[in-house]
């Protein structure tokens, strides 16, 4: 219901403009439907051309509304695909001032001035041209900020606040680097003659790094063997300790037995 009510005024305006440009179709003028057969026979020769022209006008009249609907549907599809176009369509009322050319004097007043009765037409043409030139200079002197209201400017600044903060941070970093004197190439040109030596030193460093890796692997393997040897030696000492304890216990038991036998004998 809302779509029909919003399209109906636009359709009526389009039909009115087409009626003014191309004329009213015969189907609307001949509303009573009473036309004599003699007039039909007299105009029978031009019937094909007039029917083709009326059909073309009706197609154009129908196509205008249909084109408007297709354009609206295409805008909806594009808005779904592009976030920027979606924001533009949603805030069209805010950005409409930027999309329209500034005019200080309406066209109707200019046409009335141009068509007014003047006994000296050449002077009137000169005044019209000078007025148009002055209006053009006044309109060109207007800036984009003059066309936007304050709330639109505020919303645009709030939307760009993150970018503004990022740009300010980048400018501060650039200023710090400039104060430290690290901008530009610096002493890079003085180091270019030492490039062969640098390449040779890099290759030597890579070779030494490979040797250090091999030595590190050898040391790691040696430490693993040392750990295994230490564990085996510790196990042997523990086994010897247990055997000595067993032997000491056996010797002590035999000595007690011998002392007991000697005591019983004497």
From TrEMBL:
In residue numbers, the region (Disordered) covers 25-68, 104-144
- Biological process GO terms, please? cytoskeleton-dependent cytokinesis
Checking InterPro entries in the record gives: DCTN3 (IPR009991)
Cellular component (GO) terms are: dynactin complex
- Signal peptide interval: none
Q: Where do Polar residues bias regions lie?
A: 104-114
Comp. bias regions, Basic and acidic residues: 51-68, 117-128
Q: What is this protein called?
A: Uncharacterized protein
